[in-house]
Design brief:
alpha/beta, about 25% strand, globular, eight-stranded parallel beta sheet, nine-stranded mixed beta sheet, 12 helices
């Protein structure tokens, strides 16, 4: 029998923080409490350290093909980076497939891409057009372990309101969750056209071309459509602004649909002044863009009052020295996305929990439990409880460190958090009872990750 006993830890679940021990057997949490013993177990003394459930990142883009380029982290390198940061499960957003392809087309493609993954993984489906075949095929997703699918209100394969309503009606019938990228495409198109016509091609015009009211309008409209259908489960991805949070609050409480909200670390810790450098600003181009400090403050307030449910990373890295340089003469040609999967838990532990902005159980709910519950992998993942997978991360709160790209495992040439001073660091990650990271060194095997059949 494979046993591991963690002694003297400060254990955090989604509801409490207490001193105790934890026993993992055969990949599962067998017991936790005080004064636990076990024969033939590897014993880890965790005195002074915090033991959390392994992170569940509900929003990654590993190996994303954007048509003219490809994200630099695949499932292998991205999985290693996630594991080194204490994340043990990801639910990845699949890229668009060929034009007019079947709804299930990308599932086979992604199973091949993910064969190298080192942590457990699932997929969100993706909608790029709506017809009778797509609506029919939506019923095939649950049998393939997929209980959510995403559509966009901007980009080439955006859905209009009529198609969104058709999809919502079908998702309601099937009990599927709809993830929505909320930006008003007409506003974005007009603003980008305006700035380029005026010769404003620098990165500083990126946030101006994707204003917060474009997000807030699309958030309100999406929830209004869901309320029209009634009983729809909606998940708003990467909420970035005060106006977006206000729109969600107003529309969410006006109807009977279930609406979940996600934000990302970049919208809590980074701001639009980073675009002012005409060269370095390319690093921070993503959609939605970084906002102002008051937007971060509003998002923190929404986290603290329980209105934001999850924290995903939207991890989608590109090399600054090559791929991001596509936009050096025109910001609109820069591939959207930044790295972040490795630092999510460290940022929240240091600048959230230790900074007094949220409790450790609240951090667990935001980064582990609620993503697992919403996307159908609980109670297997996302919390510390008997019978759950022994996915765990051990944090040492006494480590003070400075973020440097050279110390990270993300397959790109920069981190947007370069030079940030953090307190507390993950020193061990377990996936199904196996120590896969210890003191920053990845110990797992390529392809050890398992596909998560979501319910």
């Amino acid at each position: 029998m494979d046993r591991l006993l963690i002694k003297n830890a400060l254990i955090a679940t989604d509801s409490e923080l207490f001193a105790g021990d934890l026993l993992a057997e055969n990949g599962l949490i067998a017991d936790y409490g005080t004064a636990l013993t076990a024969q033939d177990a590897r014993v880890i003394d965790a005195k002074g350290k915090y033991l959390l459930p392994g992170g569940v990142d509900p929003h990654t883009h590993f190996d994303l093909d954007v048509g003219f380029d490809r994200a630099s982290d695949d499932f292998y390198t991205g999985g290693i980076a996630a594991a080194c940061g204490g994340t043990t499960s990801v639910i990845d957003h699949m890229a668009f497939g060929p034009k007019h392809c079947a709804l299930t087309h990308q599932i086979g493609v992604y199973h091949e891409l993910a064969k190298t993954c080192v942590i457990d993984y699932g997929f969100h489906g993706v909608l790029q057009h709506v017809d009778s075949g797509v609506l029919q095929d939506m019923e095939k997703l649950p049998e393939k372990g997929i209980t959510s699918l995403k559509y966009y209100l901007t980009y080439d394969y955006r859905l209009d309101d009529a198609d969104a309503l058709r999809v919502m009606e079908r998702a309601k019938e099937l009990g599927l969750t709809l993830c929505v990228h909320c930006e008003n495409d007409a506003i974005l198109h007009r603003m980008r056209e305006k700035y380029l016509a005026e010769g404003h091609t620098q990165p500083r015009f990126h946030p101006l071309s994707r204003p917060a009211w474009a997000e807030s309008e699309a958030v309100y409209r999406s929830i209004a459509l869901a309320n029209t259908v009634g009983g729809v489960t909606l998940y708003i991805v990467h909420l970035s602004s005060r106006l977006g949070a206000q729109a969600a609050h107003t529309a969410r409480h006006a109807g009977q649909s279930k609406v979940y909200l996600e934000t990302c670390p970049q919208y809590l810790f980074l701001h639009d002044d980073l675009y002012m450098d005409d060269k370095e600003g390319l690093k921070y181009i993503l959609a939605p863009p970084l906002r102002k400090p008051q937007d971060s403050q509003a998002l923190w307030k929404s986290i603290q009052n329980g209105e934001i449910d999850t924290l995903g990373t939207d991890h989608c890295p590109f090399f600054f020295s090559s791929q991001k340089q596509r936009g050096k003469d025109d910001f609109t040609k820069t591939p959207n996305g930044m790295p972040g999967v490795e630092l999510r838990l460290s940022l929240l532990f240091s600048e959230g929990f230790l900074a007094g902005k949220l409790s450790l159980p609240e951090m667990v709910r935001l980064c582990c439990t609620r993503p697992a519950e919403i996307f159908g992998i609980a109670p297997q993942k996302g919390n510390i409880q008997r019978g759950a997978d022994a996915d765990l991360v051990l944090f040492d709160p006494d480590i003070s460190w400075t973020v440097h790209h050279r110390d990270l495992h993300e397959n790109t040439d920069y981190t947007p958090y370069e030079g940030m001073q953090l307190q507390g660091k993950p020193v061990m990650t377990l996936s199904r009872g196996e120590v896969i990271v210890e003191n920053g060194r990845f110990l797992g095997q390529k392809g050890r990750g398992r596909y998560l059949m979501r319910r």
